[in-house]
Each structure stands twice: as C-alpha cells, then as structure tokens.
Specification:
alpha/beta, Rossmann fold, 7-stranded parallel sheet, 13% strand, globular, disordered N terminus, disordered C terminus
Length: 391
Amino acid sequence: MPFVGAPAAVAADPKPLRLPVMPARLDADADCTGSSAQRATTVPWEQQRLQLTRAWEFSSGSWVTVAVVDTGVSTAAPALKGRVTAVGQAGEDCVGHGSFVAGLVAAAASDGVRFAGVAQRARIVAVRGTDARGAATAASVAAGISAAVQAEAEVIVVSPALETGSAQLTAAVRSAVAHDAVIVAAAVPDPPAKSGADQETPAPRDYWPAAQSGVLSVLDVGADGGRPDDALLPRGADLTAPGDGVIGIGPRGSGHFIGSGASFAAAFVAGAAAQVRSAHPELTGQQSAERLVSTAYPDTVPRLDPYAAVTAVSAPRSDRAARPGTPDRQVPVALPADAGSRPTRRAVLLAAGGGAVMLLVAWAAVVVPRGRARRWRPAGSDISPEPGGEV
C-alpha cells in the first residue's frame, strides 16, 4: 500500500496546458508573483520519468526535514500546509521560486490534481538565501546554509549557483557536512543566466556551492534527456534530473506554474534524498548521497532514480563513487542538445522580469540516452573541484 495518496499512472494528455512561468528573480519594480488559475490535471512528464508512483510505495519522506535555501517558502501554499517552518522572514516569498522548489520536494497530492512532490510527507524549513527579489550573494547563501544547519535539517537544497564562492560559504558547507546533512545544489544558474542568443555560450566552469566537496551537484535535462545547445555547463555534475518545463506550485493558491532550471532538478534530488533518509535512517548523510549516485541510471551524467535509491537491497559501496582527481572527472560535462526545449527556455527568459508569461506545454515522455560522468565528491576532501566526467 502506498504511504500517501499517489496519482495513478495515466497516458499523457493530448491537450496542451497553459501555465504561467515561475521567474527566477524579479525586477525592482515588478509585482510579487501571484496565484495561478490553472491546475495540472494530468501526470507531469517528470513524475512519470522518475517513476514516483513506484517510489511512493516505499517512502514518502516521513519525519525528514528538508531546508530550502532560496527566495523563501510561502506558508500560505496549500500543498505544504502545516509542514513549513520559516527562519526569520522566509515564510514570505515574493518571487515564488522557493515555494516552487519546496513543492517539487514535498507538495502533497490533492483531489483532481496529478502533481505531487517527491517526498510528500517531508517537513520544510524555509531559509532565505537571496534578497526579497531573488538576488543571491555568497554571503546570503552561506547565511542560509548556516541557518539550515541550526534548524537541524537532514537535507539542504540550495537553489542559487554563484560564479564565485567565499571562505564563509566554504565554512557553511563544511559545517553542514559535519552535521550529517545531505547538501544538494544546482550545478548552473537558472535562466536567464546569459543575456541573449547572439552571445557566445561561456566555457564550462564551476559554480558555487555545487562545485564544493561534499555537495551533490545537479544538472537539469528536458523530456528527451538533452539541454539547449546554448545552455550553461558546469565542469562536472553528479546527477541529472528533470528541470526543463517542469510543473510546480506557486506561493499562494492551488494553481500551478511551469519553470526551467537546474535548481528545479536539484529539488527532485533533494526530495529523493528525503525518501532515502526516511526509508533508511541508519545511513549517514554521506552514505545517503552515495546511494543516490550509485543507484542512478548510467548516463553521460547519471540520471536520478528515486525508486532504485529507496529500494536497493545492499548498502552503497563508497568505492563506486569516483574520488577527487580520478580520470573519469577530467572532461567538462556535455549533453545532447535539446532543440525542442528552446521555446520553454525562451519563455522563462521572458518571465525573468516578473511578467505573467503564458507558455504552451505539451507533455512528453522519451527515453534518455546512457553514458557516465563525474561522481559525487565525498565529504572531507580539501582538493579543489576538478573538471567533470568523460563523455
């Protein structure tokens, strides 16, 4: 019997659904993100891809606390009712991005709605890692991670991906690792990270805190397993998860939004980490992170598999995760181009200023190609991040 109400698996709805786009940040003069009048009444492609219905039969994230380091998490979001504890003013979410991420982690299922979070019974700690409009700095993210540690979160998901780190941020991550938390972070910034199709795509590089040892770095992919050919790339990533055109909740109301970015992919991994920690409380944070990587589908960058992570019989072998500096982490990450995702990305770019852009979404379900890449760097390593796995 499932632990929680789980939407039955259904065929993709041939009718497209119009949803407003969730912005990554707001312009100074933009209104706060409101509610959506549309609801997801069919199973989103990302839930089908992750086989969440199967995973829910074994774990729903009960008794696990997940900290969301983002724009805040609205305590008014019905899908998270009664399960959000806010640090300071983080219970207010003007942008809506943090609420969207928290919903991917832990939104409860409801009648007539096919969307639900990965760990529907997990508890959420809302922590600000940005200012009220969504702008982040190394100092603000470090403060957010430190607050999550103080709140005794067992899983910490960090949405901002910064071009530069700091000693304070490094110390905050090390503290979280020392307190046995699983730390999950976006491998690259959410769009719009670069300003226009006429500009050259930057070379693969590190983004922080994802590049730091002890952090699970997550890259986003679309329904066909690819990414836009102009998408930002990290030097390495541990896992991929759905992150292009995914469905989530808003800061208020029962309607849904659509969004794209690595922060949303990180949310799926954080939800899976909560499932693992709930089903296997005997595992440490490091062992839980290793389990997520070692049970992932082999691919250019391993693909998250929540069901396998929760149900794998044997404990993960630490030697299955590559150590810092090993040969399979010496080439930058490269994934197949995803031309079909460009309309979604463009809509997200338009929405970044806080406008109510409407996007036409058609559900898709395609098989993702296979390969291998960088593995999770174990906690405690002082070696600087190396380029990613061989393609």
